[in-house]
Design a protein that fits this description.
The complex is a heterodimer of chains A (about 450) and B (about 290). With about 450 residues, chain A is mostly helical. Chain A has one domain: Formate dehydrogenase/DMSO reductase domain (Formate dehydrogenase/DMSO reductase fold). Chain A has 17 helices and no strands. Mean pLDDT of chain A is about 90; it is low at about 1-5. Chain B is about 30% helix and about 10% strand. Residues about 20-60 of chain B have low confidence and may be disordered. In chain B, the strands form four sheets. Chain B has a three-stranded mixed beta sheet. A two-stranded antiparallel sheet of chain B has the order 2-3. A two-stranded antiparallel ribbon of chain B has the order 4-5. Chain B has about 290 residues and is an alpha+beta fold. Chain B has a single domain, classed as 2-Layer Sandwich (Alpha-Beta Plaits). The chains are: A mainly alpha (about 450), B alpha+beta (about 290).
Chain lengths: ~450, ~290
């Protein structure tokens, strides 16, 4: 109405600004507005893989863990499921860490990927819990862990894990919910079905609650930072590091070692997600290359530091170590697992971290796509490295039992693939239901 | 230090250690020499017939008795590696074929094989110690292993449900099969690899099931119980009962007059992986075959 009165020649600039602002606003919720054919195709493929994994899991549920290649006392008592558990649980941290850093350190340039990290945390944490359930011989009795929690929390590192993971899940879900309310208010009237969900999640909304929410989120991020250390630098490594029965695990280095791995793999995962969404939804202007430059540099350095820790570990296990340590070390350095080990170390950590560090030193060499691809490589390498932590010690008993071997069966690989497909699928569903990029102020 | 060269220094150190060791042996053997009664008791204990007639001394009670610490002494010098204990245990305790090895495993050892938890790579190569087909073999000795019923059991410590527990009354480390969630944390925490897991449902023919021992469901952990159903009823564990050479001895380690205590008084005993501070209740002595009557 107003615009009609205005002189078109005078107003053209203002109108363009309005249109630009509208487009800009829509840009951030592009995943909510339109769904491409590729998206549906990928979803379909992932659903197939996840379904196949669930089929394999049902098979395992009906026949027992005998469908796996695990064994005891000769063989690996824990296998790829526990590897998967560590992988996902540790990946759950960086996402929150990035987001918490945005709030605590006021790292504004990381803001567009903050929520991507939070959602990554929720999804991977769920997959970590799922991996534990898959690994259990009696998943039907899972509530025994809750039932006997009070008498076991004093000594069992697994009980510590369940505790911290649950607290962490609740806190990060609350954090995600609180920080998303602002965007839900903004978009509640634009969508019908989703709008109703938004309104449900906006329970207790009062105009002007933002200030209070910021305060809550600030305190939550402090708690979450502590929990990250407690979880990936604490209770998860202590499942392994506290057991003198397994040479190679028993180490006070376990905590820092796992924490470093968790930081590297999760920062890599945040970058991978951000890189894919940036390309898919043409968010080149939203997620600036600077985000990848910063995180890439951090990732390169942390990965290099992780290699140093690995060197320290292997040196200790070889120099004048007790024989069980040497035997385990031999298995990975020159034994049957050595191909995996050296590919992981050189192609998975060495070259990527070197490139990431070099492109930090020489900004002219920086390239977003390369950084994202290297993040993917590092993520895969960390899965393999977790395998190389969990399995070798179990194949070398302390008493003179025969050597064990462990080659996961098709059922195990199917279930692992299923968890990955499910994780990506959940993520893709999330971006269709909720705004994945935090809206701009005003 | 500057006056003594390194070689000499080492010689002194080793010499001192040697003297200390010999001193310990003498000290261990001392009560036997001095106390004729004890010596008599030992010979009586050893002379007792193997097999069904024996009872576990001081354990005649179906309930666990307070203050008892059930323990076993295996005379690996006497063991002929026949594996009767292994198979009798398997039958007694309803261990299915799908759990292999069963609760007891017997290693064939020689002087190139270390037994204190630091096996060499070549020893660990498939079957070098457990797949022997005839015994006893010249130049070999045999070491049965099973659950050590540790005083400080790491498996109990890590269990998230309390499914595995140490009975404070008689020291047995036992399983509650209904609580176990099958996470296998105890399996990795046990340095002796004494625990087994039901990867699949075990099949035991109905007519051979021992009704005194529960048949385990799929997905739970199990292990040697020191035949809790027998030893709390005054009987010996099945492995002790069937041993044809009397290499296994069972009793109350807290009772200084029990067979096991007397044996340990008279012989230097060792326990496996003592450096891990698990305090096993399973001892090994090497009295040798000349003591078998």
């Amino acid at each position: 109405m107003q615009m009609v009165k205005m002189d078109p020649r005078e107003d053209i600039g203002g109108r363009l600004t309005l249109i630009a602002r509208q487009q800009h606003k829509d840009e951030l919720i592009r995943p909510l507005l339109n769904t491409s054919k590729q998206y549906l195709l990928v979803c379909g493929a992932l659903a197939l893989i996840a379904g196949w994994g669930i089929y394999a899991w049902i098979l395992q549920l009906s026949q027992g863990l005998g469908v796996t290649a695990m064994g005891t006392p000769v063989g690996a008592t824990w296998g790829v499921y526990i590897v998967n558990f560590i992988f996902f649980a540790c990946m759950a941290h960086g996402g929150m860490a990035v987001s918490a850093a945005v709030h605590l350190l006021k790292a504004e340039k990381l803001k567009p990927i903050g929520r991507m990290g939070e959602v990554l945390t929720i999804v991977t944490l769920a997959m970590a819990g799922f991996s534990i359930i898959i690994d259990m011989g009696r998943p039907d009795r899972i509530f025994n862990m809750i039932r006997y929690w009070p008498e076991r929390v004093g000594t069992s590192p697994l009980t510590w894990d369940i505790t911290v993971i649950m607290v962490y899940f609740v806190l990060s879900a609350s954090y995600l919910w609180l920080t998303m309310r602002r965007d839900l208010v903004r978009h509640a009237d634009r969508f019908d079905l989703r709008g109703r969900l938004y309104k449900l999640l906006l329970i207790g909304y009062q105009p002007g609650e933002e200030k209070k929410i910021d305060r809550l989120a600030w305190w939550l991020s402090i708690a979450i930072i502590f929990l990250i250390v407690a979880l990936s630098g604490g209770v998860i490594p202590w499942i392994f590091g506290l057991l003198p029965s397994q040479p190679g695990w028993f180490s006070s280095l376990a905590g820092p070692y796992f924490l470093t791995a968790a930081m590297a793999s999760s920062i890599a995962a945040v970058m991978l997600v951000a890189g894919i969404l940036r390309k898919g939804y043409r968010w080149q202007e939203v997620i600036k290359p600077d985000v990848f430059r910063t995180l890439g540099a951090v990732l390169g350095l942390i990965t290099a530091f992780y290699m140093y820790l690995t060197f320290a570990e292997q040196l200790t296990m070889n120099f004048a170590a007790p024989r069980p340590e040497v035997v385990v070390s031999e298995l990975v350095l020159s034994g049957e697992l050595s191909p995996l080990y050296w590919v992981t170390m050189v192609a998975g950590f060495g070259i990527p971290s070197l490139v990431l560090i070099l492109q930090t030193i020489r900004p002219a060499w920086f390239n977003v796509t390369r950084t994202v691809v290297l993040s993917g490589v590092i993520i895969a390498a960390f899965w393999a490295k977790r395998f190389l932590i969990v399995v070798p010690s179990l194949l070398r008993p302390l008493l003179p039992f025969p050597f064990g071997t462990y080659n996961p069966t098709w059922a195990e690989w199917s279930i692992i693939a299923g968890t990955f497909a499910l994780a990506v699928l959940l993520y893709m569903l999330f971006i269709k239901v909720f705004p994945i990029v935090e809206g701009h102020e005003k | 230090m500057s006056n003594i060269d390194r070689r000499k220094f080492l010689t002194y150190v080793i010499g001192a250690a040697g003297i200390a060791l010999v001193g310990r042996q003498v000290a261990l053997a001392a009560p036997l020499r001095k106390d004729a009664d004890t010596a008599d008791a030992i010979s009586r204990a050893i002379a007792a017939p193997t097999g069904g007639g024996r009872t576990a001394d001081g354990l005649l009670s179906s309930a666990p008795r307070e203050g008892v610490r059930k323990g076993m002494v295996i005379d690996s010098g006497a063991c002929i590696g026949c594996r009767r204990c292994q198979y009798a245990c398997k039958a007694e305790n309803n261990v299915p074929d799908t759990i292999a090895p069963p609760w007891i495993e017997v290693f064939q050892m020689d002087n190139s094989v270390s037994f204190t938890g630091h096996p060499r790579e070549e020893e660990l190569r498939a079957g070098s110690t457990t797949s022997y087909t005839e015994s006893p073999k010249e130049g070999k000795w045999y070491m049965p292993v099973q659950c050590n019923h540790c005083e400080n059991p790491p498996c109990v410590r890590v269990c998230p449900t309390g499914a595995t527990y140490k009975d404070p009354r008689d020291g047995l480390v036992l399983m509650d099969y209904d609580r176990c969630v099958g996470c296998r944390f105890c399996v990795v925490a046990c340095p002796y690899n004494a625990r087994r897991f039901n990867w699949v449902k075990g099949q035991i023919p109905q007519e051979t099931v021992n009704p005194l021992v529960p048949v385990r469901p799929v997905g739970v952990v199990e292990k040697c119980t020191f035949c809790v159903h027998r030893t709390r009823d005054g009987k010996l564990p099945r492995c002790v009962e069937v041993c044809p050479v009397g290499a296994r001895h069972f009793g109350d380690l807290n009772d200084p007059q029990s067979e096991v205590s007397l044996l340990l008084k008279a012989n230097p005993g060792i326990r496996l992986l003592e450096e891990l501070n698990t305090e096993p209740s399973l001892w090994y002595v090497t009295r040798g075959r000349k003591f078998i009557k």
